[in-house]
Amino acid sequence: MQIELIATASEDSAYLPRVGLGTLAALTPPEDEIIYTDDVVQPFDLQRDVKDVDLVGISVDSKTARRSYDIAAAYRRRGVKVVLGGIHPTACPDEALQHADAVVVGEAEDAWPALLADVKRGELKPFYRPELPDLAGRPPPRRDLFTSKKYIPFQVVQTMRGCPYPCEFCSVSTANGTTMRFRPTDEVLSELRSLGKLIMFADDNVMIHRAYSKELFTRMIPLKKHWIGQCSLAAVKRLENVKLMAESGCKALFIGFESIDEETVKFTGKRQNRPSQYKDTMAMLHDHGISVWGSFVFGFDTDDPEVFDRTVEFGIDMKLTMALYAILTPYPATQLYRRLKAEGRLTDERWWLRRDHDAGSPYFVPKQMSRERLREGWVSAWTKFYSPSSIWRRFTLTRQSSWIQLAGFFPLNFMQHTLAHRKIAGGEQRFRSGVHIEETAASPVAQPQPEPQPARAKGARQLPIIG
User: Fold this and answer.
1) pLDDT at 457 over 70
2) Can the keyword Metal-binding be found in this entry's annotation (predicted)?
3) For 254, phi and psi rounded to 5 degrees?
4) pLDDT band at 233, cuts 50/70/90?
5) Is 26:139 a contact under the CB 8 Å cutoff?
6) pLDDT by residue (tens digit) across 146-159?
């Protein structure tokens, strides 16, 4: 078979390879040919890029659902079988099946070989619901698919899945469960040895299990890698953890602060965060050469109209290298979504079917301000934090102890300054510019269609179609 794996993009998508699809490619029988298409690095044109393949697999999150359904519809009109998987189909399987021939609910590794065999027999089932897989003994992702120069220059590696924290707004446990599962450290280290110097860990929390992380990071020290990742505040408030991470090559961390207010973090269930400890924790990270990209969310029931300026000033005082500000989003199947729906506060119960998510948010009625005020405050936070004066203040306040802080600070911040003004404040779309977008629903329509793009001959040497 010829199989096309498609990573769809939203305006929030980063230039990162989808290692999940790379893993499915590695699990595909060698007689089958893989075509990899990344909608981020080369936006998929619905009039020109539909291919004459045997099967299409699309990775879907909630913000790419509309885009994924449009692409799926274009293929199904050609008679091509389409399989949808990922966090959104796992949360909304019945909806996803309306746009596909099959849906994988949960993690796909154990279902993929059986699904391919069913396709070859003409017996594709509507749903595949595998158990959460053991992460031991899995092949590494096919990195030969990820050749675009648009990707950030870090090799992406995953060591674990699952999260035990009961954050009301988070959708991680929807797809990966609340039980932590880890790859054997020997397998992770073997993969790391085969890669270059720059590593990005794709884990939701690189030190959620201290014994595992201690073994991995200690054994990484001789490898002399430089790595970045995501981590909770619960781990980095301990000096021994920060010291070990720095010794193993950690140069930057993405940390979900979510809020600077004690009442808010308690209300949302993120009790591992302690706003009163934020500054001391950041100082410790900076002392060990670790830059921080902080994430904050606006729109919690405890947020008042002054939260925006307060949060920006706090981020400057904490000397954050960068910050991300988000409007609270009710993702399907989360506790937040169920609560807001029960309270009658959702303004669009299927917001993910819109084509421009940014333009319509927030998709709920806040408690202490209007929807318009929430959006205005969100825009203001982005533009103020990435104003020239803020960038300079944060640079002069921070100890310049890592190459990311020294060489990368101004390029990264000026890039974010441009994003804040053009995209956040100006509404410019990065990925859809000049690309045909269907104006109809993702279902067959009576209109002339162009001829599909010819596929390569069976057995031909595959060159990834990723731009």
Assistant:
1) no
2) yes
3) -95, 120
4) confident
5) yes
6) 999 999 999 999 99
Per the structure, the count of domains in the chain is 2
pLDDT band of residue 442 (cuts 50, 70, 90) is: very low
Does the structure show a pLDDT above 80 at 333?
yes
- Model pLDDT, residue 71: 97
Let me know whether 181 and 121 are in one domain.
no
Question: Is position 450 within any domain?
Answer: no
Long-range contacts of 177-185 (CB under 8 A, 24+ apart): 177/132, 179/132, 180/208, 180/209, 181/132, 181/133, 181/134, 181/135, 182/135, 182/209, 182/212, 183/135, 183/136, 183/138, 183/158, 183/159, 184/136, 185/212, 185/215, 185/216, 185/219
Element (H, E) at 192: helix 185-193
Distance between alpha carbon 267 and the CA centroid of its chain, in Å?
25
- The structure's pTM equals 0.89
Tokens, residue 238: 């301990």
For the chain, the C-alpha Rg in angstroms (whole number) is 22
251 by DSSP, 3-state: which?
strand
One domain, residues 262 and 316? yes
Are both 67 and 109 inside the same structural domain? yes
Instruction: Note whether residue 453 is domain-resident.
Output: no
The residue type at 255: I
Instruction: Provide, for the chain, the percentages of residues in helix, strand and coil under a 3-state DSSP scheme, each rounded to the nearest 5.
Output: 40, 15, 45
Q: What pLDDT sits at residue 400?
A: 54
DSSP 359: H
Kindly state whether residues 191 and 110 are assigned to the same domain.
no
What mean pLDDT is reported for the chain? 88
95 and 178 part of one domain:
no
Integer Cα distance of 296 and 164 in angstroms: 20
